Amino acid sequence: MMSNLQYWLVDHPTILYFTWTEGETPASTPLFLTLALLTYLSLTLLLTRLPLPPLNLKPISALHNLTLFLLSLTMALGCTLSILSSPSSTLCFSPTTTTPTGPLFFWAYVFYLSKLLEFLDTLLIILTRSLHRLSFLHVYHHATVLLMCYLWLHTRQSLFPVALVTNASVHVLMYAYYFLCAVGIRPRWKRAVTDCQIVQFVFSFAVSGRMLYLHFSGSGCSGIWGWCFNAVFNASLLALFLDFHGKSYASRNPKDKRS
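Given the sequence above, the corresponding structure tokens read:
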């Protein structure tokens, strides 16, 4: 089984010989990124202002969440195996010899494209008129994470494989929860999803300390300015998630907190 996973998730020619070429790889241009973000933000603003009737989209929502659950699981496994197979450190890519090729950058590209698919989260919320779920945190996260993933590839950013594995792993839990909700099962571990997201950001800062040590004590690490954007973004998300966590759970009584 492990040999099959290794082949299909790392050693398959499509993955092994993948190359990110800006302007040639689909969805790789700054123009595409800009148009995608503007379209997402514009449609979100427009559709929330229209007096649309609520639609029953539970079957579509279930399929969407199941798709993202399976995709997140595949990306987490694929990138983990790629890290284990990588001949160089994934914490600090060489700024002179690293090229955006191979399994790690393939999974970064798939991860980037998956963020476009996640825009459907917002559309489903709007069309079902569940606007209480459409917070600033939701829209800000969905829009900015697409830019972050683009920078991973554009700058050949050090440390992104660790971020990809941790984020995809959290999304396995998150989309499993949303899938179960869509099919009429409401798990009692909703709070665990938010807790794991917060732990993810704290972990990213801890690992970044090691990367910065390698950067300043050696010849540098590739994509350091992309990492700077990533660090600021993660800090802002951590603050927003802590605020959300406090508002959602702090006022509950002990019986509620156990749920």
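Residues 55-249 form one domain. Try to locate this feature in the token string yourself.
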